[in-house]
Design goal:
The structure holds 2 protein chains of 2 kinds.
Chain A (H helix, E strand, L loop, with lengths): L7 E11 L5 E12 L4 E5 L6 H8 L7 E6 L2 E2 L4 H5 L2 E4 L11 H11 L4 H15 L14 H12 L6 E5 L7 H18 L2 E6 L2 H4 L4 E6 L2 E6 L1 H6 L5 E4 L7 H9 L5 E7 L2 E6 L5 H7 L6 E2 L4 H12 L30 E10 L2 E11 L4 E5 L6 H8 L7 E6 L2 E2 L4 H5 L2 E4 L11 H11 L4 H14 L13 H13 L5 E5 L7 H16 L3 E6 L10 E6 L2 E6 L1 H8 L6 H22 L1
Parallel strand pairs in A: 3-8, 3-9, 6-7, 7-8, 17-22, 17-23, 20-21, 21-22
Antiparallel strand pairs in A: 1-2, 1-4, 4-5, 9-10, 11-13, 11-14, 12-13, 15-16, 15-18, 18-19, 23-24
Helix pairs in contact in A: 3-5, 4-5, 5-6, 9-17, 14-15, 18-19
Chain B lengths: L1 H23 L1 H21 L7 E7 L4 H12 L3 E6 L4 H8 L5 E5 L3 H6 L7 E4 L4 H21 L20 H32 L1 H6 L5 H30 L8 H25 L3 H17 L12 H6 L4 H15 L3 H28 L3
Parallel strand pairs in B: 1-2, 1-3
Antiparallel strand pairs in B: 3-4
GO cellular component, one term (chain B): plasma membrane
GO molecular function, one term (chain B): ABC-type transporter activity
Main location (chain B): membrane
Chain lengths: ~600, ~375
């Protein structure tokens, strides 16, 4: 066999963009790396680390400002078309034609790529079988679920056999089940067709499946190596600690994460806390931080190494997008209403859209001061449930009480007692921080001196700059502002819709630290998330699929119910949803 | 009382937010004043039916003192300018077709003889009917010239018509169009502004954030409608000032009645805009619907073509068109000096349209959910 050139050779590559505030920033900063042919390589890094920019440059869609870029041995600057003829690129949001059927989309992409008619039928049937879409060829792409769309996107990318496949965050916004299927397909492709694949991802478990991992942050290459090599960096620094009885794991986690000179990172997991100590931390002080607890060493994982790498690079104050976490004593609890009984009461809640049942007969309670998580695959009905709880969507039938007020009869009164933080930044971008808060204060009925005082208080609590234009804030601060707006009127319940989607792990830690502080101050928090590990921060979680409530309880109870005690929440979730789907299938067969 | 003040304070907070958000954007600030200013200037100068210049050609087969006299009467008006002198009738088709002239005056060979004999002496004019309005006006001028020619020859017809045009003595079409523009121009913008107000918030996700506050749909409606109405009336004021002081068209009616009319009319326009907005899921839809609506609203308003001349079905349709009554109200108060009693019937449809569309929009806020 002749010498195959490396898939990608990058030397001194740079790319600059203009930021939202008009200042240029380096999306890719003097980066050099080589990717061997025939491997599965991964770029991992937080949002804004340069993954997508790098992918787009490799696909010849963006011109680098500096440096050279060879793909499959060809200089992209000289002959981008020659490279594009031999690679396939799937962008984060693949351009499916939503009104065309699955088959028509495939045909269209085959036409665009000039795939000969005689090979099409065989190729299509293979792709459809692989993606499990064979039964849906007549369905419009717009009517597919998020996971199915992503699989169709992959199939359309693969209508011809490329020499190199570029996948930009193929699993973003895809639920755990579809995510697992997607990786099965990629593995199958590599095994059967000997493809070289480069994938970018924010999920560490996905990076762990690759041959070679490049860790990016802030446009620079932090580290590279096999997953095992990288994982070894965290060797000897990883521990697990069990909190005392009756103490929520997240409180212990909060204490650990508040000591950044001793602890790199801490996350709740299965009722215990996983943490990474600083390599040069003082043993005695660490023990002082954990009185009456006995930290045990634990096997290091890729995620640990990743967090270690990110923290080592981030000197304080350098990364403006991640605000420092807030301390608990600064946050005020709710001042209105400290009644007894559940703060949210849901009985036989149903929501139908036409003849489609989005939420079927759902009942649950949320206790005062609880962090309650709603989990589920895309289209499971969690957003619909959530919107009904906030009063954004009327229920078809059933009882719905929020903060002791019936949401079906006294919506305005109920709304005065809840705070809401939307998934996307949903404050007025062209107003300043102060103007936004002043407006929402007014909308919540705060007036005059009381409003001014409250707005100043919350600006102070959340460490915001009142004169900054909201739309130009870094992501982490935008979310902080959204939370501040949601908490202005000191609500009893705070609703958070997918608060951590699209923000990097460091910002997510900081965000959950704030939530923990809120819960300690007595605010009830209802949160939806598709990051299964975040269920560990919740007191109780509910898992929904196809509109039905499958499991409810503490993360530990749910894990036990799945029969996978001690496993990752991700696996427990998959087991529960699959079990329910299998039972559903049996019931239908029996009927 | 306390709850009323609390209610009002919430609405004021929303109004303030709307106005601040509107004024913050430099592009918006320009849009608030620029188009009203430029469009009223454009309409004032460009949109006129008055003929000030008629190019024409002559085919004088009479070659007599009488024909020269007739033509000099024509040229004496200062409106007719001879572009060509034709030698034979075959050339007529060509000059008209090319659009070089609007009209050809053809004087037959026996013109002078017939005049001398005291018989009828026909003069033929051939008009470019592709623009019927200007052709008709040109023919009218020629008639007037002929009458004066006859009088100069001492042949006056026994019946004479003496014309007095009330409210617009010179029948200047600018007088007809410009006051109507005070309503029309501002409607284009208020409609769009109102249509975008909710659609923009829906698209950017801020509408959900607004709906979870204790604000009731009614409060949101008022908070959003008031700034739009204010902007609309402000734009009308800009046009009014230009009409009154730049084009110097005298205003006959009372200012308070004029503004009462403007507020009712703008309220109805905002109602339509808000309904469009509440119905649309994003800004693109809102804009599309607005443009779909604006065309028929303008056509069926009587701005250019009188409503009386429309087929009856369309005449009935015009009752839901606020612009029809807005234009009528503004024109009558401005030019005629009509009083409240005279224009009272115009208010009714405006109030009804606002009374239906505004509550409809408020209802749609919560019930139009994707």
């Amino acid at each position: 066999m002749t010498e195959t050139p490396p898939s990608v050779v990058i030397e001194g590559l740079s790319k600059r963009f203009d930021g939202p505030d008009g200042k240029p920033f380096e999306a890719i900063d003097n980066m050099s790396l080589t990717i061997r042919p025939g491997t599965l390589a991964a770029f991992v890094g937080p949002d804004g680390s340069g993954k997508t920019t790098l992918m787009r440059m490799m696909a010849g869609l963006l011109q680098p400002d500096d440096g050279s870029l060879h793909v499959l041995g060809i200089d992209l600057a000289e002959d981008p078309q020659a490279v594009q003829n031999r690679i396939s690129y799937m962008p984060q949001r693949f351009g499916l034609y939503e009104d065309l059927s699955v088959q028509e989309n495939l045909d269209l992409y085959a036409d665009l790529h000039g795939v000969p008619q005689d090979v099409r039928s065989e190729r299509f049937s293979r792709l459809l079988a692989m993606t499990d879409l064979a039964h849906f060829t007549g369905r419009p792409a717009g009517k597919l679920s998020g996971g199915m769309k992503q699989k169709l996107g992959l199939a359309c990318t693969l209508v011809r056999v490329p020499d190199l496949l570029l996948l930009d965050e193929p699993s973003v916004g895809v639920d755990p089940l579809s995510r697992r299927d997607l990786w099965e397909i990629i593995k199958q492709l590599i095994a059967e067709e000997g493809l070289s694949v480069i994938v970018s991802t924010a999920y560490m478990d996905e990076a762990g499946r690759c041959d070679h991992v490049f860790v990016l942050n802030g446009g620079r290459l932090l580290a590279e190596g096999t997953p095992a090599d990288l994982t070894a960096r965290a060797k000897g620094l990883t521990y697990v600690v069990t909190p005392q009885d009756g103490v929520p794991a997240r409180n212990l986690q909060a204490r650990l994460i508040d000591a950044p000179d001793l602890v790199v990172d801490a996350v709740p997991a299965g009722g215990r806390v996983h943490f990474i100590r600083q390599p040069d931390s003082d043993e005695a002080r660490l023990h002082a931080l954990l009185p009456d607890c006995d930290p045990q060493p634990r096997k290091e994982e890729l995620e640990d190494a990743f967090m270690l790498l990110l923290h080592q690079q981030d000197t304080p104050g350098q990364d403006a997008s991640t605000p420092p976490p807030l301390a608990s004593q600064e946050i005020h609890g709710p001042t209105n209403g400290h009644g007894e009984g559940p703060v949210i009461l849901v009985r036989d809640l149903v929501r139908r859209f036409g003849d489609f049942t989005a939420v079927a007969n759902t009942s649950f309670d949320v206790a005062r001061g609880e962090i309650f998580g709603l989990l589920g695959p895309n289209g499971a009905g969690k957003t619909t449930t959530f919107r009904m709880l906030c009063g954004l969507l009327p229920a078809t039938s059933g009882e719905l009480q929020v903060a002791g007020v019936n949401l079906r009869t006294a919506r305005s009164a109920a709304r005065a007692r809840i705070g809401y933080v939307a998934q996307k930044f949903a404050l007025y971008s062209n107003l300043t921080v102060y103007e936004n808060l002043d407006f929402f204060g007014g909308a919540y009925g705060l007036r005059g001196a009381r409003r001014r005082k409250r707005v100043e208080e919350i600006i102070c609590q959340f460490e915001l700059d009142p004169s900054a234009q909201s739309g130009n804030l870094p992501l982490g601060y935008k979310q902080r502002l959204a939370m501040a707006a949601g908490l202005l009127h000191e609500p009893e319940i705070l609703f958070l819709d997918e608060p951590t989607s699209g923000i990097d792990p460091l910002a997510r830690r900081a965000f959950w630290r704030t939530i923990t502080a809120l819960a300690q101050a007595g605010v009830t928090v209802v949160v939806t998330t598709h990051f299964m590990e975040e269920a560990e921060y919740c007191d109780r979680i509910a898992i929904q699929d196809a509109g039905r409530l499958l499991a409810i309880g503490t993360p530990q109870q749910v894990r036990e119910e799945s029969g996978l005690e001690g496993g990752h929440m991700n696996e427990a979730f998959i087991a529960i949803v699959e079990k329910a789907r299998a039972e559903e299938g049996q019931a239908q067969e029996a009927a | 009382m306390g709850s009323f003040i609390a209610n009002l304070a919430q609405i004021i907070a929303l109004c303030r937010k709307e106005i601040v958000a509107l004024l913050k954007d430099p592009a918006n600030r320009v849009i608030l004043v620029g188009p009203a200013l430029i469009q009223s200037m454009l309409f004032g100068y460009a949109a006129t039916f008055d003929l000030k210049y008629v190019p024409y050609a002559v085919l004088d087969q009479s070659h007599s003192a009488a024909s020269t006299d007739f033509l000099s009467h024509l040229e004496g008006t200062g409106i007719f300018r001879r572009e060509a002198t034709l030698a034979n009738p075959h050339q007529i088709g060509q000059v008209i077709e090319e659009g070089r002239v609007l009209m050809v005056v053809s004087i037959p060979t026996d013109f002078a003889d017939r005049l001398a004999m005291g018989r009828r002496a026909p003069v033929q004019i051939i008009l470019d009917g592709r623009n019927s309005t200007t052709a008709g006006a040109a023919a009218g001028y020629v008639n007037a010239v002929t009458t004066s020619f006859n009088e100069a020859r001492g042949v006056a017809s026994p019946v004479t018509v003496v014309r007095r045009a009330w409210f617009n003595p010179n029948l200047d079409s600018r007088w007809q169009i410009m006051p109507a523009m005070i309503a029309t121009l501002s409607m284009l913008q208020t409609l769009l502004l109102a249509a975008l107000s909710v659609a923009r918030e829906r698209e950017q996700g801020t509408f959900d954030q607004l709906l979870v506050t204790p604000l009731t749909p009614l409060q949101i409606l008022v908070g959003k409608a008031v700034p739009s109405v204010l902007v609309g009336v402000m734009q009308s004021t800009i046009v009014l000032l230009i009409v009154r002081f730049w084009f110097e068209i005298p205003m006959a009616g009372s200012l308070w009645l004029f503004y009462l009319g403007l507020f009712s009319f703008t309220g109805a326009s905002v109602g339509i805009g808000m309904s469009i907005s509440a119905l649309s899921l994003n800004m693109q839809q809102a804009m599309l619907y607005t443009f779909l609506v604006i065309m028929p609203l303008t056509l069926l308003s009587g701005l250019i073509t009188p409503v009386r001349n429309m087929p009856e079905v369309l005449q009935v349709l015009t009752y839901v068109n606020p612009l029809r009554f807005g234009v009528d109200l503004v024109r009558r108060v401005y030019l005629e000096g009509a009083g409240l009693l005279d224009v009272a019937p115009d208010f009714l449809p405006l109030v009804v349209v606002a009374g239906v569309t505004l509550p409809l929009a408020a209802w749609l806020f919560r019930h139009r959910l994707a």
